[in-house]
Amino acid sequence: MNAQPKSYENVANLDKKISGNCVSIDVTASTKDAQKIMTDLLKSNRLTGKSSKRTLTYEKIVFPEISTDYINLFVTFEAKGKSKNNPITKVNVFVQKGISTTFESSNTDQSLVSNLKNFLDTKYVQEVHNNDVAIRIANQNKDIKKTQNEINKMEAKLKQRTKDISTYENNIKKANEDIEKLKKDIEAQKQLIEKQNQILKEIK
Fold first, then answer.
1. So what's the pLDDT on residue 2?
2. Dist CA 60 CA 146 (whole Å)
3. What order do you get walking across the sheet with 67-81 strand by strand?
């Protein structure tokens, strides 16, 4: 089993103009799935925000699991690995506290960052894992269904060919019976022609 991903402090771009301190985590999921999982998880905590392409924005929210202060929370999603079977997404979480425009780090609020890392390492990672398992199960079921369809086709063909053999065997049996009958008929005709020749001789 692969080791669970761990979050870490980082400096990243929030957008083209703004960069700052954040907590990042690399998860096995597409950017689309990683974003949906985060959206659903925050929604389950009764948080409402805005979603745009690869960015979530939650302004002036109270999220006790991270901080008792009002915070602005921004989440971005970067594709690190685009493998279809093993996509990797870097998730960056930026937090501003109160009216501050500074993005928090362990240097400014150790407790907040620790809580955020714990949230990502436990709840978010677990939801990503659940999503990954669900996808793998769905794909496996799809493969099983495809294989079963192939088996069904082969069994139908086998049944048809077995029926063909039975038909051929019956045809061969009938042909052999016809051959035997024809042999007898030919023999009877030969005997008849001998009698006819004998009668012809007697007439002469």
1. 60
2. 50
3. 8-13, 19-28, 88-97, 67-81, 55-63, 50-52
Return the amino acid letter for 185: D
Backbone phi and psi for residue 72, each to the nearest 5 degrees, phi listed first: -105, 130
Q: Which amino acid is it at 95?
A: V
Q: Does the reported pTM lie above 0.85? A: no
pLDDT digits (tens, 9 = 90+) for 102-153: 999 999 999 999 999 999 999 999 999 999 898 889 989 998 999 999 999 9
Show me where the domains of the chain are located. 8-135
**Gap between the Cα atoms of 101 and 118, Å rounded:** 23
Q: Which pLDDT belongs to residue 1? A: 47
- For residues 63 and 117, the answer to whether their CB atoms sit within 8 Å is no
Backbone region of residue 55 per phi and psi (left: phi > 0; alpha: psi in -120 to 50; beta: other values)? beta
For domain 8-135, give the CATH number. Answer: 3.30.530
| Residue 47: both structure tokens together | 């948080």
